[in-house]
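ugh ok fine here u go
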Amino acid sequence: MKALSIRNLPDEVYEALKIMAATNHRSMQEQVRCMIEREARLAAGSGLAEARAWRVRLTGRSLGDTVEDVRQDRAR
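structure:
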């Protein structure tokens, strides 16, 4: 497993991390690791990228009027 050292971290950021860690009942190292892991997962599997891909796939397709379809179904 790799290690990472962060230099020149502003005091206010350090204090904010310290508070976040205490709030989440974690050590500072564990808190920072969780934050980095979460950001890496979000960057790798971005929901926005997936939404864009679906938008491209559906471009030009006629999807109909769902609201009108439901109304017609209820009227039967």
